[in-house]
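Predict structure. Input: Small CPxCG-related zinc finger protein, 65 residues.
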Amino acid sequence: MTSLPGDDGDVETEPLVCARCGRRAEGSRPTWTCSLENGVRQYFCDTCSRENLRSIEGRLDSAWW
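Output follows.
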């Protein structure tokens, strides 16, 4: 089970994986972007978030970019 970044619960968590490039998060509190698309949380690493900032701000689903 993957918890939200910053969740300090007692549940053991899996590292976040970028939905775009597959990169795994390092550390317990990554500064990634979270998107809710069709009821599913998707996380995007800093690099993918920066490269697609305009599409994210335009609220376009990641499938578009």
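The longest strand covers residues 33-37.
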